[in-house]
Amino acid sequence: MNLKKKYVRVSLLGNPNVGKTTLFNRLTGNTQYVGNWPGVTVEKKEGYIRNARTPIKVTDLPGVYSLSPFSPEEIVTRNYILGENVDILVNIVDATNLERNLYLTTQALELGIPMVVVLNMCDILKRKGKVVDFCSLESSLGVRVLPISAAKNRGIEDLVNFISDFRPQNRKIVFKYMSDIESKLSQISEVLKSENVKQYNNRFVLIKILEYDSLIISSLKLNLKAIQKIDEIRGPQKDIRYEEFIASQRYSKSSLICKNVVSELSKVRHSRISREIDKIVTSRILSFPIFLLILFTIFFISFGPIGTSLQDFARLIIFKGIAHPIDVLLGQFNANSIVQGFISSIVGGLGEVLSFLPQILLLLGLLSVLEDSGYMARAAFIMDRLMVKLGVSGKAFVPLLMGFGCSVPAILSTRILKSREEKKLSIFLIPFMSCSAKIPVYLVFLSAFFPNNKTLMIFLIYILGVIFSIMTALIFKRFIKPKDNSLIMELPDYKIPSVRNLYLHLKDQLKDFLENVGVIILSSSVIVWFLQSFDRSLHFTDENSKSILADLGNFISPIFRFAGFDNWKASVSLISGLFSKEAIISTMSIVFDADESSLSETLHSTFSFASSVSIIVFILLYSPCIAAIATIRKELGTKSAIFSFIYQTSLALVFSSITYQILSAFLK
Ligand code: GDP
Ligand code: MG
To answer: For the chain, what percent of residues have pLDDT higher than 70?
Structure first.
């Protein structure tokens, strides 16, 4: 591409009614201007692509069935393209009419201009239960193929990105005609070369000359000798209709490609093993139970005995191997007791969070293995019908599932969703999936108030979260208006997951996790420590009821009045839960002056049955921790992050108050 030019020139080429103008409007919005092509009354529309990284000018060419000069539209389109006005040709093809549309594509390919094929109307294709094998279409055509739906505004972003990053490459000729014709084409090329015609290598021009396209021939301004030579090459039999001959070859090529790439979704070809596995895994009766079983197994491994013992091991290393020696060392150096307290509290806080790393990596690793094996695509497929009702595709199910582990990687994993709207909706749903950091908090309260029904209650808490997320989805989808982005559900073959993919995946997740711990958790620990250790006049205090934290708690607690837990200790614990949910328990044990084992009894004396249930509801629903909010901000921006915080917290406040009021009315 010529960098001196101010913009890249893109033209939309396609049959009439394939959606060129719809796509043009999507791409250019209000930057477009309408005029006429010189000399004819055919409308000419031009505009600039919005949101492109480089300036790109788009021209909506008149719709044509071929590049033969039969109609004013065809002449305008052809002259424009041949006049070197186009840097990238976007050939729009109606996916539901592939065979007819490919006729023009086969001609356009011969122009030798950088080109991308855009498969439009993919929404209809999907509705008809058909799929297009993109890879094989791409290799048949030798150019990139992108699926879109102009009317439904899907895939447009990908197209814009593709055009912005486009680097033309040498293409190989994918359409060869019969050897007789090919040899005539190269003879014509020789003639043009000897006449110094610069298009001597342009297959399109060569073919048109063979077809005796008078407009092209006259435009080349050939001398009589050359024309005679060309006549000789064409042969004595003036009645040979090269044009028809070439056209029929084009048609058969298009129809052959079409046969190879379009298939019924239900008949997509897979390896025999994949088909056998799918017979069971995606079967009507077994698919769901198998799916649940796999999920259960993953959660069992991550949070059951294996995960817990790995966590215990991590704790051993962190606390006995690192935190304790630091403590001892500080003692030996006779460090100032405030400094010592500060360091051990920060190290303890970070250690607490880091000790969850094995479980998080285990969960994410197993999910990544599932993804790599090809099963996740089936899971998304199985869940698709349910999820679509909520305004997201089956794919969004993966991030939601991960939300049960930790919201941070779950939010990051919404990057697998293509449209911003779907991503946004999913991110707003993730905090309702009760994260693993809340488990110890629930357990402490449940041991105090439901010692005999802990498992059932935990299960109900999770279900309650899911119910809230469903309600949220049903309301929010009206505002966010997500587009169904799962254009074509391709189920890949099953394969043995690779260690390399697992490693690459976990490396990224680990990096993000450590960044969070390093920046957010570290700074929040410092803040909590400070607030807990100093009073309002900034004197160090051992009595936390005099600390700034207590002041803060007393200031906040009135908002919990209707929810029944309006005391400063509960308030500050909940505030510290904003830094990380695990901190609720550690803060409670500090402010109630109880260790983790005696905490349950202590809670019994502070909370009533009704207020314990209501605080559980509050903890389930209120704002996710700062790390999650920061991740939302990273993915969606500040406004969405603030919104999520306010939405979750007010929902929590309203429903915990309702819970408390109802329960205390009944229990009177
Ligand atoms: P043009 O003649 O190539 O400019 O085509 P238009 O942009 O005028 O579109 C022709 C018709 O197809 C219009 O009714 C569009 O709304 C419709 N259309 C365009 N793209 C799509 C699509 O992706 N899906 C569906 N269902 N309809 C489309
Ligand atoms: Mg149009």
So the answer is: 93
Give the ligand 1 atom nearest the CA of 122. Answer: 23
Ligand 1 atom with the shortest distance to the CA of 24: 7
Ligand 1 pocket member 18 (CB < 6 A): yes
Query: Same domain, yes or no, for 150 and 235?
Result: no
Q: Which residue lies with its CA nearest to atom 19 of ligand 1?
A: 19
- Domain for residue 523, yes or no? yes
Would 323 be classed as within a structural domain? no
What CATH number should be reported for the domain holding residue 199? 1.10.287.1770
Whether the CB-CB separation of 303 and 359 falls below 8 Å is answered with yes
Q: Are residues 604 and 661 in the same domain?
A: yes
pLDDT band at 175 (very low <50, low <70, confident <90, very high): confident
Residue 572 burial (C-beta neighbours within 10 Å; 0-12, 13-18, 19+):
buried
pLDDT per residue as tens digits for the range 193-220: 998 888 888 899 999 999 888 888 888 8
Q: Verify whether ligand 1 is closer than 6 Å to residue 283 (CB atom).
A: no
The pLDDT value recorded for residue 391 is 84
**In this structure, which residues have their CB less than 5 angstroms from ion ligand 2?**
20-21
CATH number at residue 146: 3.40.50.300
Please check the confidence at residue 597 and state whether its pLDDT lies above 70: no
DSSP state letters, 203-244 = HHHHHHHHTT-HHHHHHHT--HHHHHHHHHHH-S-TT--HHH
Indicate the top mutation candidate among 22, 122, 126 to test ligand 1's pocket, ranked by most ligand atoms within 8 A of CB: 22
Query: Is residue 493 one of the residues assigned to a domain?
Result: no
One domain, residues 17 and 157: yes
Task: Give residue 602's pLDDT.
Answer: 85
The answer, yes or no, to whether any atom of ligand 1 lies below 6 A from the CB of 446, is no
- What confidence tens digit (pLDDT) does each residue in 321-365 have? 888 898 888 889 887 888 887 887 777 767 766 777 887 788 778
* Sheet with 56-60, edge to edge strand ranges: 33-36, 43-48, 56-60, 8-14, 88-94, 115-120, 144-147
Residue 449 covered by a domain: no
pLDDT tens-digit profile of 240-265?
Answer: 678 888 888 889 889 999 888 887 66
Task: Determine contact, residues 406/436, Cβ cutoff 8 Å.
Answer: yes
* Domain endpoint, select from 231, 263, 295: 263
14 lines ligand 1 (CB under 6 A): yes
Q: What is the pTM of this model?
A: 0.54
For ligand 1, whether the C-beta of 147 sits within 6 Å is no
Domain region containing 661:
508-667
DSSP string across 173-209? ------HHHHHHHHHHHHHHHHTT-GGGG-HHHHHHH
- Pair 124, 187 in one domain: no
Do 636 and 520 lie in one domain? The reply is yes
Q: How far is CA 425 from CA 396, 411, 470, in A?
A: 9, 11, 11
Check pocket membership of 311 for ligand 1, CB cut-off 6 A. Answer: no
The total number of structural domains that make up the chain: 3
Planar angle of CA 74, 19, 30, nearest 5 degrees: 100
81 with 105, same domain?
A: yes
Last residue of a domain, one of 165, 187, 215: 165
